[in-house]
Design a protein that fits this description.
The chain has 129 residues and is an alpha+beta fold. It has a single domain (17-120), classed as Electron Transport, Fmn-binding Protein, Chain A (Pnp Oxidase, Chain A). It is 18% helix and 30% strand. The protein has helices at 53-61, 74-82, 91-95; strands at residues 17-22, 28-33, 36-40, 43-46, 63-68, 99-101, 108-110, 115-120. The chain has a 4-stranded antiparallel beta sheet with strand order 2-1-5-8. It has a two-stranded antiparallel ribbon with strand order 3-4. A hairpin with a 6-residue loop joins strand 6 (99-101) and strand 7 (108-110). The chain binds flavin mononucleotide (FMN).
Length: 129
């Protein structure tokens, strides 16, 4: 017999994506995003709260990277999801991780994460959906 479990995260597990951007001064910000997936073979879609520092950076730089974290960096990955670059400008520096500039887009590539997608910003949907 089927059970009504109400509205929930029905498609699970959700990925833990590390979204990396440059701040205005060239320092780095990284946030943790579970609400994201592939939109097509060469596009990702992320559901990001507009007030996050990351969103401001993406709109300003028109670029971001999305890395897949590994279990060796679970502490840093969690940290990126609970501290905001809005209140902690040196958020990334405090993580102890390292990065280099992407050769493809205006965004950082985190060296310690094994897989990185270098992304051009297309658009922010805001209240359109
Ligand atoms: C496991 C986890 C998943 C998260 N997923 C999302 C998400 O999909 N979208 C979002 O807007 N915030 C998400 N957050 C919250 C942001 O990562 C968090 O608010 C972060 O501090 C924003 O950083 P920023 O202001 O430096 O961009 C998540 C946090 C955690 C711990």
């Amino acid at each position: 017999m089927r059970k009504d479990i109400k509205t929930t995260e029905a498609i699970f597990p959700m990925p833990v994506l590390m979204v990396a951007t440059y701040n205005e001064d060239g320092s780095i910000d990284v946030m943790n995003a579970a609400w994201g997936t592939m939109l097509s073979r060469n596009q990702v879609i992320l559901n990001l709260t507009e007030t996050h520092k990351t969103v401001k950076n993406v709109k300003a730089r028109k670029a971001f990277t999305v890395s897949i974290a590994d279990t060796a960096h679970i502490t840093e990955a969690d940290y990126f999801g609970v501290v905001s670059g809005n209140s902690t400008p040196d958020k990334f520096a405090k993580s102890g991780l390292t990065a280099e500039k992407s050769g493809k887009v205006d965004a950082p590539v985190i060296n310690e994460f094994p897989l990185c997608m270098e992304c051009e910003f297309i658009r922010y949907l805001g209240g359109e959906y």
